[in-house]
From TrEMBL, chains A, B:
InterPro entries reported for this sequence: FAD-bd_oxidored_4_C, FAD-bd_PCMH, FAD-bd_PCMH-like_sf, FAD-bd_PCMH_sub2, FAD-linked_Oxase-like_C, Oxid_FAD_bind_N, Vanillyl_alc_oxidase_C-sub2
Keywords assigned by UniProt, alphabetized: FAD, Flavoprotein, Oxidoreductase, Transit peptide
Cofactor requirements of the protein: FAD
Protein name: D-lactate dehydrogenase (cytochrome)
E.C. no: 1.1.2.4
Organism name: Polaromonas vacuolata
Amino acid sequence: MNAPLPSHLLPEIKQRELPVELIDALKARFAERCSTALVVREQHGRDESSYAVPPPAAVVFAQSTQDVADVVKLAAQYRVPVIPFGVGTSLEGHLLAVQGGISVDVSRMNQVLSINAEDLTVTVQPGVTRKQLNEAVKSTGLFFPIDPGADATLGGMSATRASGTNAVRYGTMRENVLALEVVTASGKVIRTGTRAKKSSAGYDLTRLMVGSEGTLGVITEVTVRLYPLPEAISAATCSFPSIEAAVRTTIALIQMGVPIARVELIDGNTVRMVNAHSKLGLREETMLLMEFHGSPSSVKEQAELVQELANEHGGQAFEWASTPEERTRLWTARHNAYFAALQSRPGCRAISTDTCVPISRLADCLLESIAEVDASGIPYFLVGHVGDGNFHFGYLIDPNLPHEREVAEALNNKLVSRALALEGTCTGEHGIGLHKMDFLVTETGDGAVDMMRTIKHALDPDNIMNPGKIFSW
Amino acid sequence: MNAPLPSHLLPEIKQRELPVELIDALKARFAERCSTALVVREQHGRDESSYAVPPPAAVVFAQSTQDVADVVKLAAQYRVPVIPFGVGTSLEGHLLAVQGGISVDVSRMNQVLSINAEDLTVTVQPGVTRKQLNEAVKSTGLFFPIDPGADATLGGMSATRASGTNAVRYGTMRENVLALEVVTASGKVIRTGTRAKKSSAGYDLTRLMVGSEGTLGVITEVTVRLYPLPEAISAATCSFPSIEAAVRTTIALIQMGVPIARVELIDGNTVRMVNAHSKLGLREETMLLMEFHGSPSSVKEQAELVQELANEHGGQAFEWASTPEERTRLWTARHNAYFAALQSRPGCRAISTDTCVPISRLADCLLESIAEVDASGIPYFLVGHVGDGNFHFGYLIDPNLPHEREVAEALNNKLVSRALALEGTCTGEHGIGLHKMDFLVTETGDGAVDMMRTIKHALDPDNIMNPGKIFSW
């Protein structure tokens, strides 16, 4: 059961009517690729967040940039919202049609347009997913490292400035998108950059669009950086006597500049859920799950150094996943932690947190928050991209018990306040969407949000691009 | 002798009057820190570019964010331009007061505000220079890698999205600025981010400001990333039988993913100038100047791999700079190439190019352009951050011979056209300023420039922040 929107978000709910002439025009232009069937609209009116909002009035399945431009032009003419949709994996209510309008599904725009292996770049349509992309470039010896867990689309990952497990070494979408093609609010098609690795040519429209959550335009092409597949990869798990010990190990290795590719924290409780879900026999203690990339000797060097650091903090039982199959099994289990947790409490919903703090503040932020959630009695999972200072609690609430949701929201509020006091952010990688609009103001101050709003008003004066998200109009 | 502005830029010249009341108000607020002396104004009315434009009407030496905010508020009240000034090393006319106004000199805002060694971050005032910064953090075992050659300020480097020799490994200001404090066009003070390593919290105002060349606000604080000083550093030079051989070696090592820290091309002619200026005995042939960072074994591994690649392309005479002193001497010589070149033709001025192309296109772009400049008879220097596909010709013209300037401009036009056709950019790191406004339109198209202009109009409706730069109003 999805919850009603909290009252402070109600002002964003202003369902705009979709005029019959607009529906007619869309049907004339797109025929069966424009659907008003309830089941299709409902599929496009939700994401992984848990609020009940009416679905969009129509869904258009775009197959080209021209399709997107044509939808946006019609929407602009009638001043109705346009909400880009990839595969629906966003977490913060980005896809909810709070003001009605048209969902533009770009999942059929899934062509890999050009692989430029010699430049370590690739250009794709926005509906290409990260797994599809890695499959497509496999034969070149290159890979795309950004991995938010879900098999999200490159368009969606760009729109939310996604990152994930490899970001500690390879950066986020912010660092890895080189250029975009975007349909603006007036239906114009622009390019935000070139394939050059660096540029000082005017305002950084690429970075402005990355993370703008569909509120400034619809992304119709994405050029990203690729990396040579490391000569050697090795993965290991290491168990720790406490979360603090695992976190202190992580802090030490980051401060020493170890170029670790992945370092993920999973608490003992979550390991138990993962074991049950993925039929694994991992030690049910706090664990770091790590991966090292490099030449055989540099991987060995990194691993030895990390083992030494872990030992100093009481880490033990370093276990190596030496074959690609074992590695895949471990990382799949890690990525399924979310579903494993949901399964651990049948019928529950997860409310995910996403704070990110400077690495030196990580222990403070995490340990106090764990004490709070333990005291609350709400079951939870805990995983973290701890090398970046980013971690996620998932509060596993019974949606039929409003009290649990309130407790979970209160816990998240306290966590965010703590992270902000420690010079961190309310969202490391999920975005603001609907749920974190108040946090954004607290985090950046009115002045910065005013600047964002001024840009939005200028670029989208009729507020048709995914309205009601990030900040109030 | 500086040249008059080319006629297509004349529309940007609209000297606005500075009302006497404003001067009085500035003098009342800043006393002797507000100067209208011609010599001071002239110092602040030029940069390393070569156009003759009247100086600003007044210069204010700011000592705090509040000072900057007060200048901007007064300027806003009277609608006169504000031009931020650091140490005057920009190359594209960024500092020229084409519409008159007030130069805000931030060089006295030169405090390192907080070193957070355990988080690998530092926050500085905008007048701190990169050498000063590295001196200040030296004892922590960390360093700031971005190195544009000149000892520029962090404010200026942020404003132009600078990079330089280390960018091939460590990225540019785009990747290394975490957060800014900015005084907006209305005199408000905003913060664009936190110290968290990553964030998805709303529009990326940090990246919007980085590279905006003072046209959207005055940067008053900069938080950047630091890196652990590598355990081992080694530098080497290698001579090549041709520029093509050096470029092909570079392309190969980038495509293999060698994490080289610096790889600079210097052509034989420029080596000769450098030898004369810096009293060195480098082989006067095309040369790659390289630096490797890492653990001792990884540095050794990288160096061996690069030697092998160089040998395959006919590279020879690998020479190692093993002591820090030798390294410093080599890099100082490289950084002085510009002055060495100026010295090689007494009285000349250098017109610098700054194209950047995808690495696979580098040989095409460079070799054809060399043939053109050789045919023209204009003396030149050639240096390049070739690992990024970025290189600079400096056409050494006699400013008293208008014909030479015309030839140089024509050569640059051809070079830029070629770089754009090869999916590159007209400016890898210098910025657009005054000189490349037309190139920006060609490169990004009207649509993208319109979007930049719309943002500018919204954030600075009276066009007081460094007007006449990047694009026409």
